[in-house]
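Project standup — Tuesday

K.O.: blocked on the structure for the chain from last sprint. Re-posting the sequence here as requested.
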Amino acid sequence: MVLAASLDWLAGLFAGVPAKTLLRIAAFGNPAPDNRRPRFGEPPQKPVFPGFSTISESWFGTCFRACTATASGKRSPVQRRMTVDKMLYVAMTGASQNALAQKAHANNLANISTNGFQRDLEQARSMPVFGDSFPARAFAMTERPATDFSEGPMIETGRDLDVTVTGKGFIAVQAPDGSEAYVRTGSLNIDALGVLRAGNGMPVIGNGGPIAIPPEQKVEVGADGTISIRSMGEDPRVMAEVDRIKLVNPDSKGLTKGLDGLIHTKDGQPAAADVNVRVVSGFLEGSNVNAVEEMTSVLALSRQFELHVKMMNAAKEGDEAMARVLQIG
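H.V.: unblocked you, prediction finished:
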């Protein structure tokens, strides 16, 4: 409303001014007292209208230069840098990055029933546009600053090979590229080759690498990660220790979630084993996603997206109104 009223007022102000007068003022400034044109090399006077500051330092001056430059057919790139352009740029980048933020929350909601899933956090901030010219533009940037490493709910299964970490810590597994990665919970199983694997199919790492289980009748996992088995044909009271799951508790500031959904160290180095980390069998850890919080964030981002679209429409209407002003005279 304010922009439309200002444009209508501006159109009324120039309604009675001939186009030749506008061009003369734009080219030479206000006429000298003797109505002569400035000499060659003499800086033109800056026209000042009653109630306004110097035109080159005001919004009115920006509009005035845009009108006169367009009427003369000579509009430089600098003169195109108007407030409407900045408004449109901010709204456009805001809408684009807003859509990315909605994807992050949608991914959290999609994994609300995934055991051991840890939700991704997102935030938006303004970033100046650096280039060959002065950074007069700013754009909105959505980023994933961290992952929420808080514990999820414990789900009882009663299965001996379902294990999860209690408190802080992770279970070490071997990623497809051979590096060491970490998970919070695992529905362990033994494949045909005897390799102990987590629920995602990754081999579980022990004291000397991936854990291999010999033929057995029963497998038990202790609170410290120790794996004990009863061999085929052995007495029920005889249990043999095979290996120990590598449990780690690195600083969360040095961890990051990869595109594979696994937790990795930022420096790529394996974390040291921690004897204080404990696991419990017969339980799995659920996702730490809060459905209500994620839905609220999605709705808020949707409203923000609508606001960005309205800003772009307002910029379009302002540009059309300015085009009508340029046609006067």
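K.O.: great, moving the ticket to review. Confidence is low (pLDDT under 50) at residues 1-7, 9-17, 19-82. The chain has three domains: 2-80, 90-149+290-309, 154-285.
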